[in-house]
Amino acid sequence: MELNKGHGQKGEDEDRLGMLPDDVLLSILGRVDIATAARTSSLSTRWKHLPWLLREITIDVNDFLPTPHPTLVEAEHMDAAMASLTKAIRSFLGAPQSEATIITRLLQLKLYLIGDYSDLVGPLLSDAIDTGILKNLDLAIVNEKEPVDCSDEDRLHQACAIDGFFSAHPSVIHCLTSLSLDNLCFAELDMHHLLFDCYKRLRCLFLSYCDMGWLSAWKIDAPGSHLAVLELFCCCFGKLEVLHLPKLERLCWDGWVSRDAPLTLGVVPSLTELKLICAATVPFKGFKLSNVLRGTTALENLILSFQGETLWLQPEGKQLCTVFSRLRKLSLLDIFIEFDLLWMIILLEAAPSVEVFDVEIWEHPCIVDSEGRRLTYGQRINPSWKVAEFATRKEWQLRELQVLGFAPMEQQMTFIRAAIGALPRSERLPKERGFPKGKDEQDVVAKQLTAEIVNPHLKMIFAD
């Protein structure tokens, strides 16, 4: 957002903006960072009160760091950023700027928990909550160290510091609707009590590089929880057992370290989206997806990413029919480019209600099969599922098949022929990432794919 370009236009621009109603100006302010929003209050008396009328405020410590942001943030820059962030919180929440009570319905706050800033920020938040100025808080606490630089002692210390912050300011706990934490070890704390017994209003939880001690299992049994979104990134739990989370709608786990199935689902009646991302390492045995999904009844969107390595799904077929009964979108991502793809037909057979099917082929510049890669991930093993298990096909509802990373290789052409040959209702078949180029090449590939297939509804699209 640029304000007042040139001295000659200043008065004219102010008058033009000043004619807009408050709700339009507030919509503009809601799209800029907090520092810019605060500066607008000095433009004129028309703007003076507006930043304090925002119902949603975002105060991000990154906005107070040097620009461009350095790869490694120096301690003095963190301290200066937190000083500015504290000032911003005090400015917006410390005292209403008009006689009427100004209520901030949501504060999105990202900060470092360094120095004595927790003793400064905590009371400001508590007072705003206790006086009714602040209703909801989305909080992200950033570790000042990168994951590779964090020792076990550092991660234990950070977990205790966060526990101390919430214990000292219980009002903050009762206002939390979203919480993001990273680089923590809860081995010396009751993680379940902290995250589910205390945070009654928490709806979104994001954890990265967290654990309860190396490969310890994390059991969640919280029938009274309102948690709707749970996202884990590189968290070293030996297993996640979701025994009871009745409001959970979305679960994402990106990267796990486990020899067996990393996840079990119990009572999760609201779960509609599940996303699992992992590159199978040498000791990982894989698992049957039907066993993991056994507790689901409403799953509509399933996303599986294999990061270009061996599939961590064990072959199965009809066992998936029950857990796939309401599936509407299926995404199989980062499939090694040389793998056979016909095994995917089994998943489609088990989920005839799927309307959108996304396939992504993994062809990466770092795909070189080095000795270091083989030591970690082993030899890539081509899928060996029994495609002929289903004797008959149910009528599929599939209307969109997207293949990202398409190349006219035999295994891809065979798979696509098999898919579109059984899709009387298919409307389009997008294939992205630059090949084939030009209408002539596209026409050739289209003819190869649709040879001997009678499908008047099929429309093939090649998108860059």
Description:
This protein is 28% helix and 22% strand. It contains 14 helices and 17 strands. It has helices spanning 10-18, 22-29, 34-39, 45-48, 75-93, 117-130, 152-168, 170-175, 191-197, 289-292, 344-350, 371-377, 410-420, 438-450, and strands at 56-60, 104-112, 134-142, 176-185, 204-211, 217-221, 229-233, 239-244, 250-254, 263-267, 273-277, 301-305, 329-336, 356-362, 400-404, 429-432, 460-462. With 464 residues, it is an alpha/beta fold.
Q: Which features would summarize this protein structure in a list?
A:
globular; 17 strands; disordered N terminus; 464 residues; alpha/beta
* Total of DSSP H or I helical runs spanning 4+ residues: 14
The beta-strand count equals: 17
Task: Look at the helices and sheets and give the structural class.
Answer: alpha/beta
Task: List the uncertain runs.
Answer: 1-8
Helix content: 25-40%
* Strand-residue proportion: 15-25%
Largest sheet: 14 strands, parallel
- Widest β-sheet, arrangement of strands: 1-2-3-4-5-7-9-11-12-13-14-15-16-17
Sum up the overall morphology in one term. Answer: globular
* Whole-number mean pLDDT: 82
Radius of gyration: 27 Å
Gap from first CA to last CA: 31 Å
Organism: Urochloa decumbens
Protein name: F-box domain-containing protein
Domain F-box: 19-50
Pfam families: F-box, LRR_At1g61320_AtMIF1
